[in-house]
Structure formats: structure tokens, C-alpha cells
Amino acid sequence: MMTRHKLREHLFKILFIYTFASGEMPDRMNVYLDTIEDLDDAERLMLETRFARIIDHLPEIDRKISETSNGWKIERMSKVDLSILRLAMYELLMDESIPEGVAINEAVELAKTYGGEESFSFINGILGVAAKGGHEE
Asked: Which residues in the chain show pLDDT less than 70?
């Protein structure tokens, strides 16, 4: 059984792949999922389902990222930061099973591991504004 953190990390990686290969995602996602050791059927289904939900809500998620990112256009964001933000914004706005603080903390940890030098503070700032329900001025 994988930890929630590890599953979230895999979901981030799937979202990252999506930023490059959206049209080829079913094949790419299956190849990626097939490479994960110790992934059981329930975990695989959970990753596939959560990915599908994020993609279904992507316009709304991206709109909220744009509203809270203080003038940063999504197209200008690094693909790593954008993938982390998409996952975290989904968790903040649409997944009531994940506490707000957990969603933000996990996103910051992913940014520290995979993002650039400023990624974690950039992501923390955007998610902090979103969590308050506000817009960055």
C-alpha cells in the first residue's frame, strides 16, 4: 500500500506528462502506471479517476490559478509549477476529503523536490490566496 504522499507524487507526474502530451494521454498514462512498482489495482484506479476529474475541471482550475497568480500567465509558468498548482487547486476547490492545509503543504513539498529555487514560495503564495477565496491584486 502506497502512502498518500507517494500517490500524490505520481499524480503530479501524470499531470506533468499531460502538459506535453495531452492528446496521447491514455497511452502515456498506462505506460507510466505500468512502471510503478507495488501499485495495486485500487491505487491505479484512484490515480486514473483523480486524473480524469482534474482534466474534467481543468478550465475552472486554470481560471482560478490565473486569478490568484498576480499577473502570471499560465503559459509562462514552468510546467512543473503548473502541474503542482493544478493538482493542489483541484484538492483545494473540489476534493473535500483533503484538508486545505494538507493540500497546500503537499504542494509546497512537491515544489521543493521538483521545482526551481523559487517554486515553493510562488506556489505557496498562489495557494494561500486561493485558500482565502481571494484574488491577488
From this structure: 134-137
